[in-house]
Amino acid sequence: MPTSPDSPSPDSQPQDTSEQAAWRVRVQALASAADGIRQASDRWDAVSDSYCDEDGWPVDETGYADGKIARDAAAWEHVETFLTHGPEVLAGVRAAAQPADYLGGTISTDLLRLRGIDSVLERAGEIRREWDQVIALMEGSMPGSRELYEERAREIRNSEGWHYADELSYSGAALARAADHLTDRIGVDQSAHTGRVQAALARSASGQRGASPTSPPASAASDPPAAHRSR
User: Fold this and answer.
1) DSSP-based three-state secondary structure for 20
2) What is the C-alpha separation between 114 and 170, in angstroms, rounded?
3) Of residues 34 and 9, which shows the higher confidence score?
4) Are the beta carbons of 70 and 175 closer than 8 angstroms?
5) How many percent of the chain have pLDDT more than 90?
6) What residues contact 136, with CB distance under 8 A and at least 6 apart?
């Protein structure tokens, strides 16, 4: 059947490509993970004062400790989601974002909030690698008592990861919003986009920090840090 001159060919319709569909899944996973961390924090904030005296010192140390353990465990599950999808989505955002996006665009504030997310993801990744090493050692050296020590090691991992989880509830949410806004640019120019993503991933892997080279310098008046609540 002939097509009119104005009818787009199948090859020129990037709006619903498989790459964009996969991108949406990752972005939604990150948005849900950031929300899950906030919920874990809010649940703890709602009850933490009940374990403390007027000066903020715990009077029910067992209940206080158990509450933080539960919060940290819930938050770490969502950190795992960021470790799985965060680096690739971050690289995609930096590859797709244009200078105008940083200069007062719809996602300019969110893009600026991504300046420190590399180190947060890197440190969380180190904690996970340390955990993997601990488990590997346990499997070879203490098969009979592994369950007991593994539970304690898990609590330590989650506790060390809480700071980075708290950071990701803000910077990770910004990443998800920016990525959602840029969805229509993903896969439009496959070759160029792939090259930019690979370059961005290489910069992250080499330990470079900060925004993409395409982003403008930070202004003198930067956004104040978000208030972190949970103790």
Assistant:
1) helix
2) 10
3) 34
4) no
5) 58
6) none
**Cβ(43)–Cβ(169) below 8 Å:** no
The closest of 97, 94, 92 to 211, measured between CA atoms, is 94
Count of Cβ atoms closer than 10 Å to residue 230 Cβ:
20
Classify residue 220 as left (phi > 0), alpha (psi -120 to 50) or beta: alpha
Measured at the CA of 49, the angle between CA 43 and CA 54, to 5 degrees, comes to: 170
Neighbours of 53 (CB within 10 A): 10
User: What DSSP assignment string belongs to 24-90?
Assistant: HHHHHHHHHHHHHHHHHHHHHHHHHGGGB-TTS-BSSHHHHHHHHHHHHHHHHHHHHHHHHHHHHHH
pTM over 0.70: yes
Mean of the pLDDT values across residues 197-201?
56
Q: Which two tokens stand for residue 84?
A: 């799985």
**Look-up of token digits 């009940």:** 50
* CA pair distance 42, 229, nearest whole angstrom: 9
* Structure tokens given for 179: 């990525």
H or E element that contains 205: helix 190-205
How far apart CA 221 and CA 16 sit, in angstroms, is 39
Distances (CA, A) of 24 to 16, 101, 181: 10, 20, 11
